[in-house]
Design a protein that fits this description.
Number of helices: 7
Structural class: mainly alpha
CATH topology: Four Helix Bundle (Hemerythrin (Met), subunit A)
Mean pLDDT: 84
Distance between the termini: 42 Å
Number of strands: 0
Strand content: under 5%
Helix content: over 70%
Length: about 240
């Protein structure tokens, strides 16, 4: 009961925070004089990127925990965090494309952008992680393989983050611009609230996923025990 109450409170807080962030994005933050209404995509676009980083950091932590100590909880955490991280990554990528077309007249078939490309790679890597979990034969070998993918895949996270500094790119430097974020206080506050809201949502999704994975593990353990019990009784006779 305590676990359910905590999850309900966490989910409710995440929903309330996302509603507050939406209100600030459309009603509080001023419209950008140059970019116009499309700039409002920035708040959720950047915040979901940070949410994806956090989810994949959880995948990394869980994978390391499994490889180091064969931690079932670590494996469960990685399993719960990867789908949420992939959803955030796809959201970030799609919103980036929606923004790039009117602002840069960006055409993916003709113009290469380091951040968009590395973000696409990150989505593919974690989609591959989920495919390993889905299609590999269940057991410790599959868990180890998935953990290795989770550790190696995290290498792309700093590549995504620092791509605008390492390569020439169309992507603007807003938060990491020289001298500090290139935004007025109202926009900066809106971004901060949106980021907190997205992180709360990420935590809620991972927590719900973790509980679902824990229940699935318990169910599978009961099924294995039920299959072994008749054989043990036969041997005892």
């Amino acid at each position: 009961m305590t676990e359910n109450r905590t999850l309900h409170l966490l989910t409710g807080a995440a929903v309330a925070a996302m509603l507050a962030a939406g209100g600030m994005i459309f009603l509080y933050a001023p419209q950008d004089a140059v970019q116009g209404p499309v700039q409002r995509l920035f708040y959720l676009h950047a915040a979901t990127a940070i949410g994806a980083y956090g989810c994949f950091a959880a995948v990394l932590a869980g994978s390391v925990g499994y490889l180091w100590r064969s931690s079932a909880r670590g494996d469960r955490l990685a399993r719960a965090a990867a789908p949420a991280g992939l959803v955030f990554t796809v959201n970030t990528f799609v919103m980036g494309m929606v923004y790039a077309k009117p602002m840069w007249n960006w055409d993916p078939s003709h113009t290469w952008d380091a951040r968009m490309t590395s973000t696409a790679v990150m989505a593919v890597v974690y989609a591959g992680y989920l495919m390993v979990r889905r299609f590999a034969t269940p057991g410790h070998p599959a868990m180890r393989l998935a953990a290795v993918v989770g550790v190696v895949g995290f290498v792309d996270v700093p590549v995504v983050h620092f791509s605008v500094e390492w390569w020439r790119t169309l992507h603007p430097q807003v938060l990491d611009a020289p001298g500090g974020p290139a935004m007025p206080p109202e926009m900066l506050l809106t971004f901060a609230v949106t980021t907190v809201a997205v992180l709360l949502l990420a935590v809620a999704l991972v927590a719900l996923g973790y509980r679902a994975e824990a229940r699935r593990d318990e169910r599978e353990e009961r099924q294995v025990a039920a299959q072994l019990l008749p054989a043990a009784r036969t041997e005892a006779r």
